[in-house]
């Protein structure tokens, strides 16, 4: 198991050596894991890159990526990409250099991946997790980005702590499918964006409670400077973009449903004119709608995690049908009752009623949760 620790640094001369030493000490306790460290530095003027360069390679394998000052987001994108393509890591574990997240917690995160989760996030917001030493400004800052923007505006509900760097992510089938090259975050909005992108791969999330402390040495980057304001604006924009992408998906999903309904109505009507019993005609029509919905949702609504390959597609189609069988039965039943009470011409309102109030909510839940989301479980 190859684990790539990704540490972004800007002016961390007093922390970075101790951080690498600590990772080395921990890795000695887990000989079955190959620990590799990637430090992404934005040409820190305080000498951080020299300290990393001089780190003895016989202790811990360390890669230094140096680039101009661009911000935390760009540094992490570069680090993740390097971990996947160059290091060929199985798991990536990003962390800060300043010991706010205790590196000794990383085995807990990695173990969650070994247990079958795809993303394990160090969390301050679940039972047992905690923050020590935040002043009102830091707390306000966090509450706005984490609760108001990430949870409410963006609607990312896979985890409760969206803002931290410390997590473990499975590469195979999950992180490798995230389009890192398309991610343009300069600042800390990356943390929310990556969670959202991971959610689209169908990843299974979990949170591990940890203590978040004050930074050990060096200066905070939070405060009113031009990077901070730029990053806040970016965070707001990114939260709104995520929300829009999700509503766009909901809109497409709705349109697919309407087309399905038209198909179903035409098929049912034709079969009823050919003297088939209405409940049966509607059930056959429903099956036609199911096929049309499956194809259109696969290639359009959910195309970011489109199902590819004939056998996978066939399996999913069977699953999809199994999941939709409830919908077919509900409609048949409603149309039977409707036509029994009000006569044959009541087949259409009965069908519509069943679709709107029962089938649509039920199917959205099933499609999202089971069909386009089960790449890895
Ligand atoms: N490469 C790079 N790393 C950065 C940049 N900004 C922050 N970092 C690093 O990212 C990690 C987290 O940044 P911090 O400044 O600790 O942010 P924070 O934890 O929210 O704030 P503090 O509570 O003040 O520590 C640290 O290891 C920083 O050195 C940047 O622009 N480029
Ligand atoms: Mg910090």
UniProtKB/TrEMBL annotation:
GO terms for molecular function: dolichyl-phosphate beta-D-mannosyltransferase activity. Residues 252-372 form the GtrA/DPMS transmembrane domain. GO terms for biological process: glycolipid biosynthetic process; polysaccharide biosynthetic process. Its main location: membrane. It is found in: Membrane. One of its GO terms (cellular component) is membrane. The chain crosses the membrane at residues 253-274, 280-300, 320-341, 347-367. InterPro entries: DPM1-like (IPR039528), Glyco_trans_2-like (IPR001173), GtrA_DPMS_TM (IPR007267), Nucleotide-diphossugar_trans (IPR029044). It is a multi-pass membrane protein. It comes from the Bacteria. The keyword Membrane applies. Keywords: Glycosyltransferase, Membrane, Transferase, Transmembrane, Transmembrane helix. The keyword ATP-binding does not apply. This is Glycosyltransferase 2-like domain-containing protein.
């Amino acid at each position: 198991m190859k684990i790539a620790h990704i540490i972004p640094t800007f002016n961390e001369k007093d922390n970075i050596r101790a951080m690498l030493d600590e990772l080395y000490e921990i890795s000695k306790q887990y000989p079955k894991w190959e620990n590799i460290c990637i430090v992404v530095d934005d040409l820190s003027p305080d000498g951080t890159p020299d300290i990393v360069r001089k780190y003895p390679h016989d202790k811990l394998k360390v890669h230094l990526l140096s680039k101009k000052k661009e911000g935390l987001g760009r540094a992490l994108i570069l680090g993740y990409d390097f971990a996947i393509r160059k290091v060929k890591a199985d798991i990536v574990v990003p962390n800060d250099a300043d010991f706010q997240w205790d590196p000794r917690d990383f085995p807990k995160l990695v173990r969650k991946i070994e247990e079958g989760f795809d993303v394990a996030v160090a969390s301050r917001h679940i039972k047992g997790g905690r923050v020590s030493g935040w002043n009102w400004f830091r707390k306000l800052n966090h509450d706005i980005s984490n609760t108001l923007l990430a949870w409410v505006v963006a609607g990312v509900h896979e985890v409760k702590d969206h803002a931290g760097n410390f997590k473990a992510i499975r590469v195979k089938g999950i992180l490798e499918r995230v389009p890192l090259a398309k991610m343009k975050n300069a600042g800390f909005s990356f943390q929310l964006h990556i969670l959202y992108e991971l959610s689209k791969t169908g990843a299974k999330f979990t949170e591990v409670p940890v203590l978040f402390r004050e930074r050990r040495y060096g200066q905070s980057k939070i405060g009113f400077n031009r990077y901070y304001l730029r990053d806040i604006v970016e965070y707001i924009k990114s939260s709104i973009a995520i929300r829009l992408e999700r509503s766009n998906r909901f809109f497409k999903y709705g349109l697919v449903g309407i087309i399905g309904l038209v198909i179903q109505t035409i098929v049912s009507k034709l079969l009823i004119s050919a003297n088939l019993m209405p409940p049966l005609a509607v059930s056959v029509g429903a099956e036609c709608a199911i096929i049309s919905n499956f194809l259109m949702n696969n290639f359009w609504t959910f195309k970011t995690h489109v199902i590819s390959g004939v056998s996978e597609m066939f399996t999913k189609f069977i699953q999809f049908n199994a999941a939709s069988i409830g919908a077919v039965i509900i409609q048949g039943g409603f149309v039977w009752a409707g036509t029994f009470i009000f006569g044959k011409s009541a087949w259409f309102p009965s069908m519509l009623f069943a679709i709107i109030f029962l089938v649509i909510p039920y199917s959205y839940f099933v499609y999202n949760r089971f069909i386009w989301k089960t790449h890895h479980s």
